[in-house]
Amino acid sequence: MSQKLKIAGWISVGALAGALTTVSLTTVARGSLAPLPLEELQQLAAVFGMVKSDYVEPVDEHKLITDAISGMVSSLDPHSQYFDKKSFKEFREGTSGRFVGVGIEISQEDGLVKVVSPIEGSPAYRAGLKPNDLITKIDDTVVKGLSLSDAVKKMRGEPSTKVTLTIFRKDENRSFPVTITREEIKTQSVKGKVVEPGYGWIRLSQFQERTVDDFVRKVEEIYKQEPNLKGMVLDLRNDPGGLLDSAVAISSAFLPENVTVVSTNGQLAESKFVYKAAPEFYMRRSGSDPLRRLPAALKNVPLVVLVNEGSASASEIVAGALQDHHRATILGSQTFGKGSVQTVRPLGPDTGLKLTTARYYTPSGKSIQAKGIVPDVLVDESEEGNLFSLLRTREADLEKHLSSGQGPEVKDAARDKLREEARKRAEEEAKKPASERKLPEYGVTDKDFQLVQALNQLKGRPVLVSKTQVIESKNEKKEN
Fold first, then answer.
1. How does the average pLDDT of the chain come out, rounded?
2. Which position among 77, 245, 324, 380 bears the catalytic label?
3. Of these residues, 313, 333, 389, 404, which one is catalytic?
4. What is the pLDDT of residues 439-480, one digit of tens each?
5. Cα 454 to the chain's mean position, in Å?
6. Which residues pair with 177 in a beta bridge?
7. What pTM was computed for the model?
8. Fold of 190-341+360-459
9. Is 313 assigned a catalytic role?
10. Which residues, if any, are the signal sequence (predicted)?
């Protein structure tokens, strides 16, 4: 296999369910890398035999083996994982941007499932579901008390099967059932619009297989409406990451050709690599370069990138590349800090192993693992401050997280005190009626404080910077 094909394979099937993942297309024999510890393996076999024969009741030997594999892998770090048949299927659905369901974006409100938006053209859209509808029952299951993920599982299923949702529509003060036939849904990871004359906003919610094509189409729409764009806001808030090649492509859309976007380094030769802003580093096997359709002006349009504690992995690659090359102003809060790469290797037709195989580095050589990207301009999520950000878990909070590999981590004791204060504020906020809660609506300028500040930055107007945010790992100097 040529080096070019190796690169294409490494990038093109990369994937992530909430974290950056790359996939190797070739299965490599690794028995020669290290001798097997035969004595320990004999002990493992002995324990398996004792449990199988001596345990108080019969055990499922398949479950014993898969649990042993899961335990071994999960002990390494928070992102390495063994996929059984069910979890492997869910993983692949999450990275493809396709799943079988009814087609709604949802959140929770008062223990119920709230429709944020039906996906255009989906069964839910055709059935007339509206934003702010509340789902009270899924078939015969009462939603109150279900977690959001459990509710999602109940609404998903096989193509052409039916699910009945009981809807409470507040503005009409009535409940009614809607029976919807499930079908394959293509999720939209890109939103965008002209937020005001001369200024565009594009939000990426995840880096999926279709993200680059959707991004190009959205940019084309914005430039068609506003040919003389004065500034662009790239919104990566709460984007958990995704495909590596998609992150390289989005970075390349704004950067000069052939500059470094990100590099990776690990034990394997294939994990030591530099990705550049050039088609061969992000094009998939289909052949054509989707970025060729972009307006040339995009390379120079003034750019602000919005990030927060939920911006992770591939989002941090984009933010780090644009920051290091001085192509954009990064605005918001310190990012999640996931700077590790996971490789997914099939173990059979329907199981797999996701294993951390490398750290990644920004163009200037910085590891953001357990640190994150520090914005050029720190801005709170609301005018009242960062009400809830300190309650969010970051990479450095995860048990067994990988170190940055660039010096010791510094823990700030003051953060625990600030987190407790934020917890009390959140409890007080939760007691208020939903209409009074201070929750940002991304892309709505009168309800999105950070977006307004990003626009002020583009216009050269004063920005209301944070007076309270604490940057972790204070031994690391912020570089501009």
1. 83
2. 324
3. 313
4. 667 898 888 999 999 999 999 999 999 877 766 543 443 333
5. 22
6. 166
7. 0.75
8. 2-enoyl-CoA Hydratase; Chain A, domain 1 (3.90.226)
9. yes
10. none
Which amino acid is it at 299? K
Question: Which superfamily does CATH assign the domain made up of 98-186 to?
Answer: PDZ domain (2.30.42.10)
Q: What angle do CA 125, 128, 129 make, to 5 degrees?
A: 75
Q: Is 81 left (phi over 0), alpha (psi -120 to 50) or beta?
A: beta
| Burial classification of residue 319, based on how many CB atoms lie within 10 Å of its CB (0-12 exposed, 13-18 middle, 19 or more buried) | buried
Work out the number of other CB atoms within 10 angstroms of the CB of residue 208: 24
- Residue labelled with tokens 């201070």: 438
Structure letter (DSSP) for residue 335 = -
- Residue 242, classified by CB atoms within 10 Å of its CB into exposed (0-12), middle (13-18) or buried (19+), is buried
Local mean pLDDT, 10-residue blocks, the chain (480 residues) = 29 28 32 72 94 95 91 89 84 72 82 81 90 92 86 91 94 92 86 97 92 96 97 94 92 98 93 96 81 97 95 95 98 93 87 92 94 95 71 64 69 60 62 60 88 98 85 44
Largest CA distance in the chain: 76
How far is Cα of residue 407 from the mean position of the Cα atoms in its chain?
Answer: 27
- Residues written for the chain: 480
Residue 227, helix vs strand vs coil: coil
Half-sphere exposure of 244 (CA within 13 A, CB side): 33
pLDDT at 16: 32
Domain(s) of CATH 2.30.42.10: residues in the chain: 98-186
395-453: pLDDT as tens digits: 776 666 787 777 666 555 555 566 666 666 666 665 666 556 556 678 988 889 999 99
Q: Where in the chain are all domains bearing CATH 3.90.226.10?
A: 190-341+360-459
Cβ partners under 8 Å of residue 390, min gap 6? 415, 418, 419, 421, 422
Catalytic residue among 137, 154, 338, 371: 338
CA distance 130 to 138: 17
Q: How many Cα atoms occupy the beta-carbon half-sphere of 94 within 13 Å?
A: 20
